[in-house]
């Protein structure tokens, strides 16, 4: 059996694949957080619960209404994004101009409420969600077996992340969004409805989390706590990449997923803490994050 650095090649590449899959979810979730914080200045601690809501919405569509995976990729983000719009209009809007701490406390409380409601309804035991028939099986690459669904998750996550970055950084709509965070009064004077733009942006960030939840449903158990287990790591990813940095979230999310996977191969005991160690080092050397603004 071929070995690389003393590790069997299938084991090494298998962990790299797992790292890429984890990195895909880190990137998707941290991207949604970065969009919301960078454009709205809201620290959205409800993000993990909204990721869980996406997975549960897909499960309910399948088991209650017979609506399969492919439609869930569209319907679940729309539904959860709409709930995000309601949250922004009814609650978060009232915190405009206040310290970030108020938004963090409110969204943290909302996350606990949402998780509690789902746990009371569905229990704490995870629920299975089948891989769609079109994506079952895998490919034998010689040095490893590549499951089709996991390859799909990595590719579609990368595409969604890059498209989001292009829209925000390279289009007129993105320039309006960025300008509205710097000088909303001026943008409002140009005839643009800034409050509606803020609401839709929050809804879009929430929809990204729900989309990631649908992608995660066939891989992980659909559980009320699946978001709580992930959100702390995702916040660390956002801090490392730079709060509000779209490109930083994408690059750091995938990169740290790979680092975590390699750590599981060469130093398994450190795999649970390596991301937080990197976060501490980055904060010491570059407090704004790797891609954040220093001024």
Structural commentary:
The chain has a single domain (15-285), classed as ABC transporter involved in vitamin B12 uptake, BtuC (Orthogonal Bundle), CATH 1.10.3470. Helix content is 70%, strand content 3%. The protein has helices at residues 9-40, 47-65, 69-90, 100-122, 148-170, 172-182, 184-189, 194-216, 228-241, 246-266, 274-285, and strands spanning 3-4, 7-8, 138-140, 145-147. Strands 1-2 form a two-stranded antiparallel ribbon. A two-stranded antiparallel sheet has the order 3-4. Helix 1 (9-40) runs antiparallel to helix 10 (246-266) and helix 3 runs antiparallel to helix 8 (194-216). The protein is globular, with a radius of gyration of 19 Å. The N and C termini lie far apart (52 Å).
- CATH architecture descriptor text: Orthogonal Bundle
Structural class: mainly alpha
- CATH class categorisation: Mainly Alpha
Beta fraction: under 5%
N→C terminal distance: 52 Å
CATH topology: ABC transporter involved in vitamin B12 uptake, BtuC
Radius of gyration: 19 Å
Main sheet makeup: 2 strands, antiparallel
The residue fraction in helices comes out at: 55-70%
Instruction: Indicate the overall shape.
Output: globular
Order of helices and strands: EEHHHHEEHHHHHHH
Spatial arrangement of strands, main beta sheet: 1-2
H/I helix tally: 11
Tell me the total number of β-strands.
Answer: 4
Mean pLDDT: 87
Total number of distinct structural domains? 1
Q: Residue ranges: pLDDT <50 for 5 or more in a row?
A: none
């Amino acid at each position: 059996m071929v070995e690389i650095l003393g590790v069997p090649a299938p084991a090494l590449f298998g962990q790299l694949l797992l790292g890429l899959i984890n990195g895909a979810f880190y990137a998707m979730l941290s991207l949604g957080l970065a969009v919301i914080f960078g454009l709205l200045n809201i620290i959205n601690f409800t993000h993990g619960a909204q990721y869980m809501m996406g997975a549960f919405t897909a499960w309910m569509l399948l088991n209650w209404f017979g609506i399969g995976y492919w439609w869930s990729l569209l319907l679940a983000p729309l539904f959860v994004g709409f709930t995000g719009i309601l949250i922004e209009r009814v609650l978060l809007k009232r915190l405009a101009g206040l310290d970030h701490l108020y938004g963090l406390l409110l969204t943290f409380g909302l996350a606990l409420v949402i998780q509690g409601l789902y746990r009371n309804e569905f229990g704490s035991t995870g629920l299975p969600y089948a891989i769609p028939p079109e994506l079952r099986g895998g490919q034998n690459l010689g040095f490893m077996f590549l499951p089709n669904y996991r390859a799909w998750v990595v590719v579609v996550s990368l595409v969604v992340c890059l498209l989001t970055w292009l829209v925000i950084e390279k289009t007129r709509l993105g320039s309006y969004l960025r300008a509205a965070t710097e000088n909303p009064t001026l943008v409002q004077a140009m005839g643009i409805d800034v409050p509606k733009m803020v609401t839709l942006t929050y809804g879009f960030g929430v929809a990204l989390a729900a989309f990631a939840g649908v992608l995660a449903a066939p891989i992980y158990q659909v559980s009320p706590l699946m978001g709580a287990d992930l959100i702390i790591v995702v916040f660390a990813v956002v801090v490392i990449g730079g709060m509000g940095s779209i490109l930083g979230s994408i690059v750091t999310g995938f990169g740290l997923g790979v680092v975590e996977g390699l750590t599981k191969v060469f130093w398994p005991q450190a795999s649970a803490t390596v991301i937080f160690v990197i976060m501490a080092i980055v904060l010491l050397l570059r407090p704004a994050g790797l891609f954040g603004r220093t001024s």
